[in-house]
Hints:
Layout: E1 3-4, E2 7-8, E3 13-19, E4 24-29, E5 35-40, E6 45-49, E7 54-58, E8 64-69, E9 75-80, E10 85-89, E11 95-99, E12 106-113, H1 132-135, H2 162-167, E13 175-181, E14 185-190, E15 194-200, E16 206-207, E17 216-229, E18 235-247, E19 261-270, H3 272-276, H4 278-329, H5 336-344, H6 351-406, H7 409-412, H8 419-464, H9 477-487, H10 492-497, H11 510-518, H12 535-559, E20 562-571, E21 585-591, E22 604-612, E23 623-628, H13 634-638, E24 645-650, E25 655-663, E26 667-674, E27 685-691, E28 698-699, E29 718-720, E30 727-731, E31 735-742, E32 747-752, E33 756-761, H14 766-774
Parallel strand pairs: 24-29
Antiparallel strand pairs: 1-2, 3-33, 4-5, 5-6, 6-7, 8-9, 9-10, 10-11, 12-13, 13-14, 14-15, 16-17, 17-18, 18-19, 19-20, 21-22, 22-23, 23-24, 24-28, 25-26, 26-27, 27-30, 31-32, 32-33
InterPro entries: APC4, Apc4-like_WD40_dom, APC4_long_dom, WD40/YVTN_repeat-like_dom_sf, WD40_repeat_dom_sf, WD40_rpt
Protein name: Anaphase-promoting complex subunit 4
GO cellular component, one term: nuclear periphery
Amino acid sequence: MESDEGENVIPFQLQFDKPIPFQIKIAEWNPEKDLLAMVTEDSKILLHRFNWQRLWTISPGRPVTSLCWRPDGKAIAVGLEDGTIELHDVENGKLLRSLKPHTVAVVCLNWEEDGQANTDDIGNVSVYEDRTSRFFPPAPRAPKMPGLVAGDSSFMDDGEDSLADLSNTSFRKFNILCSGDRDGSICFSIFGIFQIGKINIHELSIPVSHLDEHASCKLFNATISKVALSKDLCRLVVMCTGELRDCDIDPREEKISVQELHGLHCLAMDTSIFWKRKYELHQVAQQASNIENLTEVVRESLSVMSKQWADAMKTFHDKFHSLSTLIIDNGLESSPQEEFLSLLGGARISPALNQFLVNTLGEVGVKRVLKSVCGTGKELQLVVLEHLQPAAEIIGFRMGELRGLSRWRARYQGIGLDEMLLNEATENAGLLLVQVQRFMMVLSSVIQQFLNFFNWLLKSIKYLMQEPNDQLLPYNSELLVVFLKFLYDQDPVKDLVELSEADDDIEIDLKSIERVKELLQFGGFSDCDFLRRTLAKEFQHMESSFKTALQMPFTTISRKISCMKLLLLCPLQLPTTQTRTTIPMSLSFYKNELSDDTPCQSGYTDYISFQVPDEAFPDIPNCIGIAKGFKQNANKEKNGYTCLEAVLLSVPNGYHCVDLSLYKDKQLVLLLNTTSASPEGSGEACMMVVQIGDLPFISISGSSCLNQWEIDNLKGSIVYLQMEDEKVRKVPHSTIAPLAVSASRGVACVFAERRRALVYILEEDEDEEEASEDK
């Protein structure tokens, strides 16, 4: 860079330098909007505009360990310490969905969208149409639990449309959310909501030579640092630290030698199944994710109904329990039911029952209990009609759609869609609808009998108090007898809707079972035991069969994800003092300019950049390693040719790398601190942009020997960065990670040790750029 009066020309414009109340540990720019999401040290998530206006703040209540935006910028994924991944709405931060694909901390997230339009085998552009809207109204939302505060459940408030937009993926580009955890597991979720695969890097068989396809090794004690899925979804690059050991290597093959190598490694995973079967996976994910949403609606409906009915029954039993106490106090041995039947039969009323009806309960008490029980019964009917039944009907339809897809074996058998399992799940969805109708009949009968009982009580109280009762509703004596014998101290509604682990079957006479079996000849349900199950048990049975049917695609896709190649980057001490968070690294994919856009071949080139720890090679300290084309073309690799190229950059004297980030147009942004910075953070720093395309990359030939680190080959060709040769902007503070760079907006956010945030515009205006070139 040219000099003017001994000072560097300032290439980047400082937008602002503002104090911040919290120290930031994670920061990510929205890919489509001028929004910056940040995570504080106490795990609060902040969203700011480019002008630093804060839009919202949320606190998940658990430590936040990773952050990632959806490709369209409308939702943000948050990885938590307990293995949960939460999806939040960009507009207000409300929780859209909560998933738990991991059991330990989610250390990295990557959400990638297919860069190409969906096409069929002929090449015609195709968009998957969800036919459900043709036959059904919009899917119901979960009913609100009484006393539930908005935001406490895993879904949003009923008034929000973001959840519906999250599930409506018909016209959205195919995308996959990759998440890596602390134990080495990587999960794949289509649209961020439907889990389709899972691998563990400790269980991978890693090829060590193209000369012997059976030679492999494994990683031990590995920790994932970063994951990046290519834009064609064909490759996944994983950076991790761990120990490499021998495994399945022929001892007679002297050229192949793998010692116990602990260091920073890079894995290339074959995920081409996502591109090859994206059309099929899109349809399966569309149906399955909506079914999962609807099962939550059914579950919440059952939970709400169970609680509401339990509260109503508690009111009833609390009010009528005093009758039992009065019977005992009067020295009687009869039960409340016998006392009521005696009054119904015209016998003389006992003092206990008289005192209960006239003094304890009274007309007002009867009306209160009647309102509670019968009013709750009507509310349960509304929950069924507006939530549970519509959800069950759409579940049955979508199950049928999946079953129809499974019969197209040429397309869907390859992703594990099993017709027999889906036949069973579809039948169970139909049985759930039968149980819903059965529950409505039972509920209607129970409400009618309670209403009849309360009408009789009101007439009896009026009669005992010698008041006219002609205006009261009549009652049915036969129903009253049935109520007192079977419903007074029993609760069939609770038994049907209560979700429990107990195997309490409904008693059904043999004649009814035989009649159900006879219906098989006319296409009836093959499961003849459904009459013994409650509504809640039927739902659990349906949900279990659905999960079993979807486990096959999950297992099939997981098995088709394999490791193609291992790249040894640099050794680390064991145990190392540098952890994942202290080794700056960045992964990105750039589209090849001369690419023929052949999918899964060489349409995108991976770029891997990382700081080489000083402990790795003491003779070449303070270096940045860049590798590209790690797994660009699998066919050429098999023929002994590799596209891998790499270069080593030496950081200018007096500086050390704090963080780095790959930027658009094949640029690398380095955040450097002066080595003489004071402990109070009053030192200086700078931000440097390096043009990767201008660097002298060195081709690294394929080798069958894995006991030598790839960086060793570059020691003799180090590129020494000079402050005057690169675009450099001085920062008047000592900085800390993270460095947040937006490729779409051309801005970078730098955080200082003294709790300050500085935002720079990386892109120059065209007039300024032309003037600089003329100069």
